[in-house]
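Structure tokens please, single chain.
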Amino acid sequence: MSIFSRIFGGGREQPEPSYDPQSPEGLAVRWMRWVASIESARHPISDRTGQFAGEQQPDDVFFLAGTFGGEADRRCVVPADTPLFFPVVNVWYWNTSQPGRPLPHDAYGVLIVDGEDVTPDPISTPTPFTVVGAKGNPATGGHGPTRATVSGLWKRVDPLPPGEHVIRFAGGFGSGFSVTVTYHLTVN
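Here you go.
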């Protein structure tokens, strides 16, 4: 327990789960930390054109983003020999110490990579993990650490060959939330 928790009456510190960073759950955790680490003005989820798609990307995977609801048509450059990872649709649970929730029963998603239908994978993080939000980020809505879990339909796409590619995905929940995104990728 930190000194601040002892002085101000905070709860017991939660151990950090040990998700393998290349596992589906580990990639989802890393994606969540990525979207939380970027300020609002340059945020890839809010970006409708792809101009901020390259913000703070890791070296071993290239993350794509959905939207906060609605449509986006983005263009960006992806490094060659780099796999992609992204949610077709997902739901976040912030400020939680509770076990992760399963994918909502009414979730749906479709994914097309270069004209081929691809099945997205259901991925959920069963154990809460810590996410540190950048000041002004639209993902967590706050600055500093919070506990989170995530559930959704995701996909890891092996590195695409150099050249032009199109990835389209759409998904949503019965609550009326929906996402439709097209990425025009240049791999080089």
